[in-house]
Automatic annotation (TrEMBL):
Protein's name according to its UniProt entry: Glycine N-acyltransferase-like protein 3
InterPro entries: Acyl-CoA_N-acyltransferase, Acyl_CoA_acyltransferase, GCN5-like_dom, GNAT_dom
Matching Pfam families: FR47
A GO term for molecular function: acyltransferase activity, transferring groups other than amino-acyl groups
Superkingdom per UniProt: Eukaryota
Domain named N-acetyltransferase: residues: 75-230
Length: 230
């Protein structure tokens, strides 16, 4: 069994990618993560989308943590793969804020965790076994540094998978010298309780908004997001 929060064999992100992420965080936290994106728009007129305003809290884990809970034997902790982008984006409640292309890019370039249900015992370690494993829970790092898009398939919930994924990623970020933080809506009591149980502490209020160019479309918004790929 895997211990919650233990170090796992996750993808080692290139040093230049980590350095770039640290620089972005130094410039824009804790004041506004939107500044980096807005700076690329120059003087173009933008409009606020009232239906895309989210009132959030920033929760942060300040030190690596080990929990004693164990994962059931049929699961193991891995990293996300680029082919997982479709599942991650499709199951994300707020996927209108970003494109599948951006999600795939974040998975490729930044730390992430995917918990998979093990395939058949035959051919352990084979490519066939890897293909037969089922991604059941995950969390990723956005290009702006926060952890998110946390999700567990309904039939695999109440087994500690979200907590295991969150702690594995948080500990990896902290070991790399990066902050481990998430945004949570105040009304999401289940997520608040989970993260407080894991040791995350409430820090500051955050307002997440979606801005569009004046007389622009959602596609224009996504085009700007793509131009901000690392």
């Amino acid at each position: 069994m895997a211990t919650l929060g233990e170090e796992v064999g996750l993808r080692q992100v290139r040093k230049d990618e980590l350095d770039a992420l640290k620089q972005r965080l130094a410039r824009h936290l804790p004041h506004s993560l939107a500044l980096q994106l807005l700076s690329s728009w120059g003087r173009r007129r933008v409009t606020l989308q009232p239906s895309h305003i989210r009132n959030l809290w920033l929760y942060q884990l300040k030190a690596p943590t080990m929990l004693n809970a164990k994962l059931p034997q049929m699961y193991h902790v891995t990293r996300l793969r680029k082919e997982d982008a479709s599942a991650v984006w499709t199951n994300w409640e707020f996927n209108t804020f970003d494109s599948m292309e951006n999600v795939r890019n974040d998975i490729i370039h930044f730390p992430s965790v995917g918990i998979r249900e093990r395939g058949p015992e035959d051919g352990v370690g084979s490519l066939q076994q890897e293909a037969e494993e089922i991604l059941v829970s995950w969390i990723r790092t956005y290009k702006f540094g926060l952890m998110g898009t946390t999700f567990t398939l309904p039939q695999h919930r109440r087994q500690g998978l979200a907590g295991a994924a969150t702690m594995a990623l948080a500990n990896q970020l902290l070991q790399e010298g990066l902050p481990a933080f998430v945004f949570i809506e105040d009304s999401n009591t289940a997520s608040v309780q989970l993260h407080e149980k894991l040791g995350f502490e409430r820090q500051i209020a955050v307002n997440a908004v979606k801005l569009l160019f004046h007389e622009a479309t959602d596609q224009d918004y996504l085009d700007v997001m793509r131009r901000n790929l690392p």
